[in-house]
Amino acid sequence: MDKSHYFDHVCNDTIPTPPDAEDVTATDMVSEAIGEIVDNVRKAFTSDEPDEHE
After folding, report:
1. E-strand spans in 1-54?
2. How far apart are CA 6 and CA 49, in angstroms?
3. d(CA 6, CA 22)
4. Which stretches of the chain are DSSP H helices?
5. Which conformational region is residue 31 in: left (phi greater than 0), alpha (psi within -120 to 50 degrees), or beta?
6. Which pTM value belongs to this model?
7. Between these two residues, 4 and 40, which has the higher pLDDT value?
C-alpha cells in the first residue's frame, strides 16, 4: 500500500493550524500549568529560615 500521499493530503486537510501558531503545540498550556504548580508547591514547602539541622 502506497502511503506517500498521506502527509500531503490527509494530515493537511484534517489538522488546521493557523500560520501564526505553527510553533505552538497542544501541550504547551499543560506544560506551563504544571510548571506553575511545581513552583507554587516548592515555595509552599521551602522556608527562608535556616534548617535546624545545619
Report:
1. none
2. 60
3. 20
4. 12-14, 28-45
5. alpha
6. 0.48
7. 40
